[in-house]
Structure formats: structure tokens, C-alpha cells
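Quick log. Single chain, no ligands specified.
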Amino acid sequence: MWRIVSKSILLAAVSLVICCVLYPLALWAVGQAVFPFQANGSLLRGPDGQVVGSRLIAQPFTRDGYFQPRPSAASYDASASASSALAASNYALRDRVARAIGPLASFRSGAKAGQPVAPEVEQWFQQDRFQGQPHLVGQWAELHNGLAQAWVNADPKNGAYVDDWSRQHPALVAQFVKDNPATPQPKAADLAVVFFKDFSASHPGQFPSAVTRPGPDGEPVTTLEPVKEGPDIQSIFFDLWRQEHADADLRDLPGDLVTASASGLDPHISLANAEFQLDRVAGKWAAELKRDPAAVRQEIEPILRRYAQAPWNGLAGEPFVNVLEVNLALCRQFGQPHS
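-> predicted structure:
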């Protein structure tokens, strides 16, 4: 009996050593000897030699002088890789894409060819009418209750703004409670539609947005104020503008410029996407370096071509570039940005 037990123990020990020690050690040795870059996470270093990220994982770039990756439903969190899981019929998906398109869209033909759509959206918004009815912001909130509530929850300042409004309008809050007895103590998000309808009536052609001004001590202070133009107007209300201007001929945008990947961490963008961003990137570097934007653009174009690649060496799919690699190449070309 002991012989059987001892052999079983020996076999288990040998298996443990092979599977948990020798095999991983062999893989580590081969990886370090043959594929050290890939085995250590495909890490890329900046001009100062410090690790700035992985070639395999997207990260956000907020500066205009950098190329931007695809939108991320996971907020570029490598520990939370995920898609939005929104169906094509879900208005939240349409809204997210429309908000991305609004500030970027431009006319393709006609007298306004090449001009941005954003100023047109702002002018239309200020007329404060949708489908022939007044109070555009109130209509938006009624049509898309979830989006109105998402605005309230998006920032603590938004929620505090609605809370302040509710204290100043007890009659409207009381009416809401009467109409919704299951919500006797409504929170700010519960009052989103009521708030926006009242706001729209009190501030026609305006929307509450963050405005930053110098405070008494000279430091910047951000508060919510009614505005009639700006990025919030251009993005939030682009879809409603598009519904009323379905015949407007707009320039096509690269799909990956406004759509997220399945993982939310795709480190690549299409070459068409990068070329669409090229004017913005070149313009920012030109302003910082006090050079001609056209000359800077001519220097960046070869960088994109150098880093462009396609699946199966170009036999399938469209060319793409790695965002982090290209942005590092810009730093090597023009130096570290000052802002």
C-alpha cells in the first residue's frame, strides 16, 4: 500500500516540477532569448528613455498635436477591456457617434463645400425650434430621457446645478412627486426632464455648459452657465440638426474615427483616419514651432507612410498605423511639446 502511495506522491511531485517550474522556465528563457520585446509586453520608450506605454494597448492622447486613437468604451483601461455592447438600434450608440461627428463634420459640396458644419448647428440651435415646435432643449430631454439623466450624472457639477434648481422651484418638484408617487424623494437625475423643460423655457436657444473664468484670486474657476455656442452644442445637438437637414451633403468620415473597437483598446487607426487628423496635428505643431503648417504637414506625411502597414503585407485589408508609435515619432522629429 505504501509503495502505491509513495509512487503517486513522486509522480505528483515530478509533474508539479515539470508543469510549474521547468515548463514556465523554458518558455521564459526562449521568450527572453528570441522574443524579448514581445515577451516583456511590447513596451515603447519615449525620447528620454522612459517607458510610455505598450505597442499593443491604446491610450488616450488629449493634446491636439498628437494623433488620437479610436474611441474606447472601456476608457482605455486595460483591466476592463470591453465594448459598449450597444445594439445598432440603441439610440445611445447613435448619440455617441453623432456627438463625435458634430465637431468634425464638414460640407462636401455646394456653396459651403469644405466649411465645418458646427457653426450651422449653433445657428440652428439658437433658433430654438425642432420639427416646428419651440423649446428645443426641452424636446431633446423628453425624446431622450436617458441622455438627459446621463448628462446630470456625468459630472458632480451637473448634479449640483440641478439640485440648486430644484431648491428654487419647489412647485415643479412637488408636481413631479405628484405625477410620480413611486419617487417621493427624487434625486437630481430623476428631475432631469423637468429641469431641462423649465431651463429651455427660461433660456431659449441656450444649454447649461461648463465655462471657465478667472476667479477672485486669479485662478481659473469653472461653473455651469447658459451658453448658445460651443462644443456641447455642436456635439449634443448635431443629430437633431441632421434630422432636420437630411439633404445636407456632408463629407464622409473614416468609420474608425467615431466608432470604438470590440476591446476598447485597439492601438491602431486606419491610415485614412490618420490622414483626416493630419491638418489638426500639423497645425498644432506649426503653431508651437512657429513654422508654416504646410511645411510641417509635408514632414509628417512621410512618418505616416513609414509606419503604415496592412494585413498580410497589403494583400488584405486597408493600411493602418500604430498611434503610440506615430506620436513618438513626432516627438523625435519635433521635440517634446511645451503644452
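The chain has two domains: 43-83+260-334, 91-254.
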